[in-house]
Design a protein that fits this description.
Blueprint (H helix, E strand, L loop, with lengths): L1 E2 L7 E2 L11 H6 L20 H24 L9 H10 L1 E5 L4 E3 L7 E7 L2 E6 L5 E7 L5 E2 L1 H6 L6 E4 L3 E7 H7 L4 H18 L1
Antiparallel strand pairs: 1-2, 3-10, 4-9, 5-8, 5-10, 6-7, 6-9
């Protein structure tokens, strides 16, 4: 999936895999296509025309969007957003489910997503220079978030986050994070110094 902005060349923003979908935004908002989708090889797709989409998918999409809006309204981090801005976030967040013991993000990897926890229990850990793994923070409340550091600083993941129980999160990709969470940037940047202090105490 490629998006063009102004006179810049088209930029790859998403690679679809089996089970992914695309093309819904133009049908939902009766607007021109916002992206170009190119097949990298032989593909088999299911397709819905506009009428069928509105009769079936809109019901499901509308329900999911409402659930996201209700959850986002309760997240303290996002309280500085206007109702319209929160609605835009609700449009683009995706829901992710993780099993107990599953690694959500790994220290050293490139960051591509910001997560807000809906339910579950996670722990962030770092690998010290002497190859000792140390826990630095737990996430166990709805509205807890992680993954912002890498996106704010354009650096690799600073910690590994693992689900300790069945966990559900909503996530924003890098582009949506930077485009929609501008009003929250100052709050998020405060976490950088807090995180650095925690790590310094452990090392």
């Amino acid at each position: 999936v490629y998006v063009k902005s102004g006179d810049a060349p088209e930029k790859l923003v998403f690679t679809a895999a089996p089970g992914n979908s695309f093309g819904e935004l133009a049908l939902m908002y009766n607007s021109p296509r916002a992206a170009t989708v190119i097949a990298k090889g032989a593909c088999k797709l299911w397709a819905l025309d506009r009428s069928s989409f509105h009769q079936t998918i809109m019901v499901t999409t509308g329900s999911r969007r409402k659930q996201h809006e209700e959850f986002i309204a309760k997240v303290s981090l996002l309280s500085s957003l206007t109702p319209k801005e929160r609605a835009l976030v609700a449009d683009v967040v995706a829901t992710f489910h993780f099993n107990a013991g599953e690694v959500i993000m790994k220290q050293g990897d490139q960051g591509d997503r910001f997560y807000i926890m809906e339910s579950g229990h996670c722990v962030a850990s770092i690998m010290t220079p002497d190859s000792t793994e140390k826990d630095v923070k737990e996430y166990k409340s709805a509205g807890d978030y992680f993954g912002e550091l890498s996106l704010l600083t354009n650096s690799p993941r600073a910690a590994t986050v693992k689900a300790l129980t069945e966990t559900t999160c909503v996530g924003l990709d890098r582009d949506a994070f930077k485009r929609l969470l501008g009003p929250c940037t100052e709050i998020l940047r405060r976490n950088i110094s807090n995180y650095d202090a925690v790590v310094k105490n452990l090392l």
